[in-house]
């Protein structure tokens, strides 16, 4: 049975939806992502048409303004999503951009448009496969026809609303050459097992990620031997780890990266090897054709609890799938010494999962200009 908080939220969303149908639209667009100013929204803002006013609705407006400044987006109009000004900006917008739905995912009425920018394709199961209500958007970008079919099922959305144009965040991987690295860069992007915010749930083994000790001497020795750096990108919903980091291990949280003026995908663009598990990030990383490793200590448990979008995981994933830290370190050495042999598998997966041939940012702004 839904919680009292959940019931109240849905009542509030229905009231907002009804009021939205009464208020005429102005000329501006609103944008919201969770977390605030994710890579999709940042990529869009960096190429915002000068004539188009965009208001960012933020869950933490003060923090979002600091992030915008760090990323070179000074002057971005940012207001608190749940403030009176935030609600009025939404009601008066002629189009809304959101990662998870903005005050719910329903038709807006009065010819107002909604654009859905979910943050990945083909990771863990989402949406209707977990029993969630349908999500409505007028326009959703994806990277392949296979993703179009999957997204239609996940959101229970008419596939005519889903367009194979790619996603804005992918432009950060491909549009600008990577700067030279100071030694090999490894980026580890595990998904969460226990969520600390949002919908509270546990999937897989809550202690699975602890099997890789970030201060392990064996890991430190490997990184020293290869003159490599390991970046750790925790999921935004994950309960923070309390362990210490080794001398060549760095956090890739938003605040850490903002100090260098980068977003996560701008860091990912520099990665010589991606380590993940059930995250959809590997589908985007196909675009740079570099080695990937899936570190899945709890594969069977996670599969039973949450389910994966593409099965068998070890067949679809274009690289080694390992279940213990010793094998992970061995595969990292192979990947970073030029001995990996998965280039053909990556090429095959790219032909299946990365088929868009257009500029997604231009496609989105063109749609919103209509």
From TrEMBL:
- The keyword Ribonucleoprotein appears for this protein: no
A GO CC term attached to the entry: plasma membrane
Q: Specify whether Chaperone is a keyword of the entry.
A: no
Localization terms from the record: Cell membrane
Q: Name one Pfam family in it.
A: Glyphos_transf
Query: Membrane topology for this entry?
Result: Peripheral membrane protein
Give GO terms for biological process.
teichoic acid biosynthetic process
Q: Name one GO molecular function term.
A: CDP-glycerol glycerophosphotransferase activity
**Predominant location:** membrane
Alphabetically ordered keywords of this record: Cell membrane, Membrane, Teichoic acid biosynthesis, Transferase
Q: Which PANTHER family match?
A: TEICHOIC ACID GLYCEROL-PHOSPHATE PRIMASE, TEICHOIC ACID GLYCEROL-PHOSPHATE TRANSFERASE
Q: Which family does it belong to?
A: Belongs to the CDP-glycerol glycerophosphotransferase family.
**Record protein name field:** Unannotated protein
| Gene source species | freshwater metagenome
């Amino acid at each position: 049975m839904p919680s009292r908080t959940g019931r109240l939220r849905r009542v509030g969303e229905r009231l907002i939806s009804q009021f939205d149908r009464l208020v005429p639209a102005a000329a501006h667009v609103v944008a919201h992502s969770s977390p605030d100013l994710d890579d999709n929204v940042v990529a869009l803002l960096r190429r915002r048409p000068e004539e188009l006013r965009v208001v960012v609705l933020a869950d933490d407006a003060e923090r979002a303004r600091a992030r915008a400044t760090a990323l070179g987006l000074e002057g971005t109009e940012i207001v608190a999503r749940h403030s009176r000004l935030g609600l009025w900006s939404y009601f008066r917008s002629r189009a809304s951009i959101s990662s998870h739905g903005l005050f719910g995912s329903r038709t807006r009425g009065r010819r107002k448009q909604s654009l859905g920018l979910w943050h990945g394709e083909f990771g863990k199961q989402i949406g209707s496969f977990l029993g969630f209500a349908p999500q409505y958007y007028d326009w959703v970008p994806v990277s392949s026809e296979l993703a179009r079919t999957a997204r239609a099922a996940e959101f229970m959305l008419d596939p005519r609303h889903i367009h194979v144009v790619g996603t804005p965040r992918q432009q950060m991987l491909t549009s600008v050459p990577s700067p030279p690295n100071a030694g090999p860069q490894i980026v580890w992007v595990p998904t969460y097992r226990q969520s600390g915010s949002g919908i509270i749930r546990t999937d897989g083994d809550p202690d699975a990620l602890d099997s890789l000790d970030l201060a392990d001497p064996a890991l430190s020795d490997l990184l020293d031997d290869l003159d490599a750096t390991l970046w750790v990108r925790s999921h935004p919903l994950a309960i923070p780890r309390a362990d210490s980091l080794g001398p060549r291990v760095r956090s890739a949280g938003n605040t850490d990266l903002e100090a260098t003026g980068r977003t996560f995908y701008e860091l990912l663009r520099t990665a010589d090897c991606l380590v993940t598990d059930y995250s959809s990030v590997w589908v985007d990383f196909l675009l740079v054709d570099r080695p990937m490793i899936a570190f899945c200590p709890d594969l069977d448990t996670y599969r039973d609890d949450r389910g994966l979008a593409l099965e068998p995981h070890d067949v679809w994933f274009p690289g080694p799938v390992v279940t213990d830290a010793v094998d992970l370190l061995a595969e990292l050495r192979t990947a970073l010494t030029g001995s990996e042999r998965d280039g053909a598998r990556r090429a095959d997966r790219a032909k299946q999962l990365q088929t868009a041939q257009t500029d997604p940012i231009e496609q989105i702004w063109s749609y919103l200009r209509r």
